[in-house]
Design goal:
Belongs to the menorin family. InterPro entries: Menorin_dom. Keywords: Signal. Pfam families: Menorin_N. The protein is α/β, with parallel strands linked by helices and 283 residues long. It has a single domain, classed as TIM Barrel. It is 39% helix and 20% strand. Strands 1, 2, 3, 4, 5, 6, 7, 8, 9 and 10 form a ten-stranded mixed β-sheet that branches. Helix 7 runs parallel beside helix 9. The chain starts with a helix and ends in a 10-residue tail after the last helix. The chain binds 2-acetamido-2-deoxy-beta-D-glucopyranose (5 copies). One 2-acetamido-2-deoxy-beta-D-glucopyranose binds next to loops.
Length: 283
């Protein structure tokens, strides 16, 4: 009798894990994991993906040539280097069955170039935790003027880590009094050209800003169709206070599919979406 119960529970757990893999919106996110205290808290939590920013700078109070450290511009100092960040996550994953992944957001090509050796230690095929390399490599809506990270250099170096997921997006200018906009056909086409011309042959995800992506369903679908051989997905993100048409966003997510959409938006927005539960779950 106990054997039966254990077997039933095991089946339920395996089933829900399979379910979760098909529903990428269940993946949870910690942001700006850029210091030791927060990294420890994130590792101790249920969160599955740790997003963190990398700049060239210094460990607090130390001097010497700039190294990759965890910080968001304009900050250039931190108590946490990229090297320590990655080794802490790897150590956690060595002794825990539920693996935590990392999304490394590179704020400049120089930071990415100087991070190559450290990334290489964890992009070996025998290491399995999710490793995402993220940068905004093209200028996007609405007429964004933030300088993108050099796209060809980013893709060329990213391809040297074939087990990593390339998370490649557009700079954006949205929020505040900018409440309308969309990804244009030209912006989507420029991304497709880069992927093609640089012979990208690894998993890709496209971070798209919720309020803009929801107005861009046709071109987002084109983008995913043209990259389906790369197991492409979108990662829908949003800043606190962004204007978002909830119904349109929900339509985008359900059209693209829960199995191809990571959802990294504030809880308040996620709750408004009321994503449908799996139809075949009957208790
Ligand atoms: C550590 O990072 C978290 C998340 O970014 C932030 O809220 C917190 O203020 C940071 N703590 C220090 C001491 O910088
Ligand atoms: C929007 O806000 C920015 C700064 O927050 C301001 O410079 C600009 O004039 C505003 N534009 C409009 C159309 O209100
Ligand atoms: C893509 O990479 C796989 C191995 O990861 C390789 O087998 C395949 O030949 C590559 N395809 C192209 C078009 O380079
Ligand atoms: C896509 O997924 C399939 C099945 O998991 C895998 O065999 C293939 O290598 C993946 N290709 C890329 C480019 O991620
Ligand atoms: C997918 O996950 C979300 C949580 O992000 C949940 O609300 C929804 O019911 C799930 N749907 C399916 C079909 O698994």
């Amino acid at each position: 009798m106990w054997g039966l119960i254990v077997a039933a529970v095991t089946v339920a757990v395996v089933k829900s894990e399979e379910e979760a893999m098909k529903n990428l919106t269940t993946v949870s996110w910690a942001h700006a994991v850029n210091n030791k205290t927060y990294l420890e808290a994130a590792l101790a939590s249920e969160i599955s993906m740790l997003e963190a920013d990398i700049v060239l700078g210094q460990i607090n109070g130390k001097e010497g040539p700039p190294i990759p450290v965890m910080a968001h511009p304009p900050a250039t100092t931190s108590d946490l280097s990229l090297s320590e960040f990655l080794s802490s996550v790897a150590q956690y994953n060595n002794v825990n069955s539920k693996q935590k992944g990392v999304k490394l957001d590179f704020k400049s090509i120089e930071a990415f170039e100087k991070s190559q050796d450290q990334i290489a230690l964890y992009s070996k095929p025998e290491i399995h935790f999710p490793l995402w390399l993220n940068a905004d490599i093209l200028a996007g809506p609405v007429e964004a003027t933030t300088k993108p990270v050099d796209p060809v250099k980013f893709l060329t170096l990213g391809a040297k880590h074939p087990r990593s997921v390339l998370s490649i997006g557009w700079t954006t200018n949205y929020g505040g009094n900018i409440t309308e906009g969309e990804y244009s056909r030209e912006q989507i086409g420029a991304m497709l050209r880069l992927i093609h011309e640089n012979h990208i042959n690894q998993t890709v995800t496209f971070p798209v800003r919720a309020g803009l992506a929801s107005n861009s369903q046709p071109v987002v679908l084109d983008l995913l169709r043209e990259t389906s051989s790369l197991n492409s997905s979108i990662t829908v993100w949003s800043s606190e206070g962004d204007a978002v048409e909830v119904d349109r966003l929900k339509a985008l997510i359900l059209t693209v599919g829960l199995e191809r959409t990571y959802l990294d938006v504030p809880h308040e927005l996620a709750a408004k979406l009321h994503l449908p539960p799996a139809a075949n779950v009957k208790n």
